[in-house]
Amino acid sequence: MKSKNKIKKAVEELDYIPNQWIRNLYKKRTGIIGVMTPDIIHPYFSTLWNYLEAELDQYGYNVVICNTRGNQDKEREYLDTLERNLFDGLIVGSAFLSDEYYMNIEKPIISLDRIIPGIPLVTSDHHQGGILAGELFLEKGCKKVMCFSDPTRMELASADSARALIDVMEKHNREVIIESFQWEEVINYQLCMKRTRTLLDQYPDVDGIMALDLCAAAFLKTEKNKKILAYDGTYVTDFNYHSIDSIVQDAKKVAKESVNMLIKLINDQPLKKREVLVPVKYKKGDTL
Question: pLDDT tens digit string along 164-179?
Answer without folding.
Answer: 999 999 999 999 999 8
